[in-house]
Each structure stands twice: as structure tokens, then as C-alpha cells.
């Protein structure tokens, strides 16, 4: 694959009700879901505008039994999955799925950072560049936000593994800084301290929408929950942080057309 080491290349929803989740995100983000081809049984692909942007699968019963909750996970491109997984373990992270091949797709591992936030590392088997993260395209991911118990440690961990660098920062009072992260000159997201009474440390992925108010209305009208927003953020756009009907957290970002 042609993505660079450290790029976000895929987003995946683990859920308890795949059909209901597919209908929800179709209504909110305009995605279409279809079964994946090949050897990955039970896996579905989210697409929009002719491009594939993410995946969808039901949490296996054995993982439900161990307390796994619905949520979104990101895939980060690496040159060598085995070496990356070993480095993550050496740095105090965890490994939930060891380096594994998916025929025709690539090699991946499911890991977690030292603060317990899960993510995938992957090297794709096919040529081409993933467009899952594309800040210019509606329906694609525009922003990757990590809320963590130790922002400084997280920044050091991801920077050493993936070459991410600190960009600008916005002071948030007692919460510390909202620290932007850049990769090869592009601001790809931010790291912040999690709210003491908020959700556990996790990545939240913000997907682009054409009208933030229409998206917020679709969330509520299709059984979801708005946790924050719509609120204006730098750049003249607005965000909402929402939960789908199964409880997975995600974000939406876009303009407020009613004020255009």
C-alpha cells in the first residue's frame, strides 16, 4: 500500500447490532453498507460516494462475555506489523490480537497504548492509498481525537511509534491543553485529558457532514444521543459528539447551513 507509516487508514465499528447500526449511520452520514468480499465472513464495508471509508462487524459472543462494549477503532499504517506490535509491548502497551494475516487484505494486530486505549496497526496487501481519512470529503473521517488519562505520555508514545508531532495547542484551563497532532505537515487530530467523570480513555473519530444541524437531528431521530454540541470550533465549522443506539461514541463535523 502507498500510505505512509503513521497514517490513519481505516475505521471500524464493533457493535452488538450490525443491521441497526448500518441503518443509523446511513441516515446520519449517508453511508451504504455491503458485505465484504473474500474470506472475511460477517464483515461489512461502509461506503460513500464510491469510496470505502470503514468497516462494521458484530462483536463476537466470547468478547461480549468479557465485557467488550460497542465502539469505534482506528487502523494506523505501519511498515512492519510484527515490529510495530513488539515495540508497542516494549513501550508498556498491550496486545489483544497478535500479528495476523487476512488473505488479500493485509496483516494487522489489535493493540492498546499504555493508557489502555485500543487501536489497530496494519500493513495493507494491495496497492493504492486509503481515503478513509480525507478532510476535504463529506462522509470521510476529518479528525482523530484522543481523550486520555495522561496526554504527555500518550503524545510521547504515539510520536515515537508513528512519527506524529505536536502542532498548535489551545489552553483548556484546568483540563490542560488541547494539543493538535500533525503528520507530514497535516493536522490530523488532537490529544486532550479526559474528563474526570467522562467516558474511559478512547479515540473519538469525527466524520464530515454537509450540515451539522441536519446530522444532529438525524442522530436524535434515529435513536442516538447527542452528548455535546452543535458547537463551533476553529475553522468556522461545528461539531457534535454523539452516541449511536448501541452506545458507540463518534463525532460529526461540518458547517451550519442555517447560518450560511
Automatic annotation (TrEMBL):
Cited InterPro entries: Anthracycline_SecMetBiosynth, Glyas_Bleomycin-R_OHBP_Dase, Glyas_Fos-R_dOase_dom, Glyoxalase_6, VOC_core
Domain VOC: 7-124, 139-255
Lineage of source species: Bacteria, Pseudomonadati, Pseudomonadota, Alphaproteobacteria, Hyphomicrobiales
Name the UniProt record assigns to this protein: VOC domain-containing protein
Amino acid at each position: 500500500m502507498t500510505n505512509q507509516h503513521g497514517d490513519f487508514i481505516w475505521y471500524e465499528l464493533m457493535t452488538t447490532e450490525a443491521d441497526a447500526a448500518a441503518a443509523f449511520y446511513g441516515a446520519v452520514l449517508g453511508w451504504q453498507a455491503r458485505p465484504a468480499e473474500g474470506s472475511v465472513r460477517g464483515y461489512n464495508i461502509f461506503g460513500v460516494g464510491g469510496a470505502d471509508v470503514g468497516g462494521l462487524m458484530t462483536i463476537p459472543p466470547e468478547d461480549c462475555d468479557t465485557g467488550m462494549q460497542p465502539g469505534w477503532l482506528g487502523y494506523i499504517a505501519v511498515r512492519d506489523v510484527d515490529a510495530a506490535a513488539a515495540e508497542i509491548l516494549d513501550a508498556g502497551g498491550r496486545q489483544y490480537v497478535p500479528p495476523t494475516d487476512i488473505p488479500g487484505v493485509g496483516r494487522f494486530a489489535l493493540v492498546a497504548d499504555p493508557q489502555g486505549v485500543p487501536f489497530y496497526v496494519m500493513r495493507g496487501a494491495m496497492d493504492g492509498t486509503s481515503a478513509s481519512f480525507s478532510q476535504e470529503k463529506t462522509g470521510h473521517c476529518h479528525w482523530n481525537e484522543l481523550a486520555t488519562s495522561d496526554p504527555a505520555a500518550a503524545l510521547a508514545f504515539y510520536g515515537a511509534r508513528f512519527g506524529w508531532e505536536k502542532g498548535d495547542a489551545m489552553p483548556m484551563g484546568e483540563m490542560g491543553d488541547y494539543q493538535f497532532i500533525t503528520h507530514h505537515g497535516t493536522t490530523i487530530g488532537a490529544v486532550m485529558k479526559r474528563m474526570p467523570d467522562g467516558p474511559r480513555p478512547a479515540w473519538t473519530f469525527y466524520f464530515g457532514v454537509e450540515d451539522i444541524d441536519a446530522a444532529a437531528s438525524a442522530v436524535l431521530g434515529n435513536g442516538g444521543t447527542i452528548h455535546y454540541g452543535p458547537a463551533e470550533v476553529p475553522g468556522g465549522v461545528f461539531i457534535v459528539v454523539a452516541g449511536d443506539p448501541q452506545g458507540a461514541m463518534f463525532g460529526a463535523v461540518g458547517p451550519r447551513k442555517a447560518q450560511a
